[in-house]
Amino acid sequence: MEQPVLNVSKLETHFFTDDGEIPAVDSVDFHINKGEVLGIVGESGSGKSVTSLSIMQLIQAPGKVVGGEITYKGENLLTKSEKEMRKIRGNEIGMIFQEPMTSLNPVFRIGNQLIEGIRIHKKWSKKKSWEHAISILKLVGLPRAEELMNEYPHQLSGGMRQRVMIAMAMACDPEVLIADEPTTALDVTIQAQILELMKKLNRETNTSIILITHDLGVVAEICDRIVVMYSGKIVEQGKTSDIFQQPKHPYTIGLIESVPDVRVRKDRLYSIPGNVPKPGSIQKGCHFAPRCSFAFDKCFEEDPVLLETGSNQQARCWLHEDEKKAAVLERVNS
Amino acid sequence: MQEALLEVKQLKKHFPIEGGVLKQQVGTVKAVDGVTFTLHKGETFGLVGESGCGKSTTGRMLMRLLEPSEGEVLFNGREMTSLSKNEMRHLRKDIQMVFQDPFASLNPRHTVEKIIEEPLIVHNLGNKAERKKRVKELLEIVGLSSYHAKRYPHQFSGGQRQRIGIARALAVNPKLIIADEPVSALDVSIQAQVLNLLEDLQKELGLTYLFIAHDLGVVRHISDRVGVMYLGRIVEMADSEKLYLDSKHPYTQALLSAVPVPDPEYGKDRIILTGDVPSPSNPPSGCPFHTRCPKAMDVCSSVVPEFREVEPGHYTACHLYEEDHV
């Protein structure tokens, strides 16, 4: 069995607010292998971004990682000091954020921002770092890399800025790249360019990528494996092809059905009734039960556990405890 | 022949760029540069394009929230661009708008009742009791409950707020609703709810929609006809099915192929466009798309292609389909 590069187990990140303790990430387990692209999918408030920030230990008060383990290269990141973490961030684990506008410092030139990380982590001379930065800009497909180094972020378009962000995250050859909604702010034609670039980087440098997104299309496009989150918990995980062909959790099924497809027009869109619950508002039972059309008594009483539903596929749903009930789901699904 | 509700002819909006100490005009941004289309009664016309293509500017000009620089807009055969402010206000009873951001488009200090009642007051419709009754009715039409009337916007989720925005637009019984990215701020499961609501309302109330969006899947789902915009112009226009199955313009083809499909098994030949959308303050000569077009020819950089009918009901502006080049 392949050794995972990064393993997250029983991760708990809670927010301590005036309304009490809110479990934004609730006992989340997943791993990512070398060279793999893992997608974390969910709607707003599902805890997908908090999960990624927890890995990087960038959670700010009132949030706090209160439990679990994040193992990277055999060491638990949660026991590391801030100083040790700083050596890992950007060097071993890189991160790309959603807003290319706000993630670059507007008053520094691209070059200065790019070499900062390289100089700190690699301890190279300014000249060597500068040359390395230019080669990275070329790698991410930016034209006139030398000139760009002396330009300011406002002089670039959104797509170019996102490429610079990727270059910055890739500058120190990280083992793992976490991309939090990297294409959400971009137009489709630019999104296609960025996704193509990420695929290329994954292939050529064998970097593992954790892609966090709400867009099922993007996930289908580039991920090997998927983790679906809802209300702070993983509700389903498995191989991309399995999840799209045979989704096992009613939420995943609903999510896939409610996307308007650009290839065929559906007569009527399937829609999941109700709204995403506020984190912490559901005390008992499955968090999806109030919106679920398959829910039965047990769902409102007891929170389901992740059940094996196939080879390497798990769903947090009581339907899969009983073959008959699972068969109903199967029928509706087909 | 279907009856036209709204006719837009050669609509343009040029914004001046001012520079220097004396605020002299140093250039123009051609945000919308000659847009022509017709909306038939009871249909949904989708206007789709990337950011900066002028689709929202077009929508705002139809409401005269922005004054057009040139061109004509006929609503029910009546010229709109020359109407006075007062006449326009009366006309807006028939044309209402639903905005993108359900967080910014509702006044946080007003109750839902006050928000939905406001257009009724502006247009002098009904007395106080009738208006209250109408608000409750509207809330139920859009899938909320009448007890929500006393609440404030912050007490609602994004999807519910968008429903309030739709109720406000419906209050005065409009004929046309201009919806500018009404679902782009919503989560997928909520987006489907709002799209279904819009479809149901259209059937029940016989509404006509101008649906402005960047999401091609959403536009295909809701529209009868679609216009694709690029740099201030419509480059292709056809029935929705036709446009998606047999697109003519290379830009439409690239745009459609760029959409990620939620199916990992779906193999496709993706056309990846290079570069970015050029600035509308300095658009390329000839066809505005020739700088990124994979099929560009010599003529494209010098001559602006005419927007012409290439098949019945299917219009495109591309030299590939002009007789001399076929």
From TrEMBL, chain A:
Gene Ontology MF terms: ATP binding; ATP hydrolysis activity
Family designation: Belongs to the ABC transporter superfamily.
Subcellular location as annotated: Cell membrane
Keyword entries, A-Z: ATP-binding, Cell membrane, Membrane, Nucleotide-binding, Transport
GO cellular component: plasma membrane
InterPro entries, alphabetized: AAA+_ATPase, ABC_Ni/Peptide_Import, ABC_transporter-like_ATP-bd, ABC_transporter-like_CS, Oligopep_ABC_C, P-loop_NTPase
Record's protein name: Peptide ABC transporter ATP-binding protein
Ranges of residues in domain ABC transporter: 9-256
NCBIfam families: oligo_HPY
Mode of membrane association: Peripheral membrane protein
PROSITE patterns: ABC_TRANSPORTER_1, ABC_TRANSPORTER_2
Pfam families registered for this protein in UniProt: ABC_tran, oligo_HPY
Top-level taxon of the source organism: Bacteria
Protein species of origin: Guptibacillus hwajinpoensis
A Gene Ontology BP annotation from the UniProt entry: peptide transport
Automatic annotation (TrEMBL), chain B:
Keyword Transport included in the entry's annotation: yes
Record keywords: ATP-binding, Nucleotide-binding, Transport
Annotated ranges, domain ABC transporter: 6-256
Entry annotated with the keyword ATP-binding: yes
Sample GO molecular function, one term: ATP hydrolysis activity
One BP term from GO: peptide transport
Entry-linked NCBIfam families: oligo_HPY, PRK11308.1
PANTHER family: D,D-DIPEPTIDE TRANSPORT ATP-BINDING PROTEIN DDPF-RELATED, TRANSPORT ATP-BINDING PROTEIN
Family from the record: Belongs to the ABC transporter superfamily.
Protein known as: Peptide ABC transporter ATPase
Originating organism: Guptibacillus hwajinpoensis
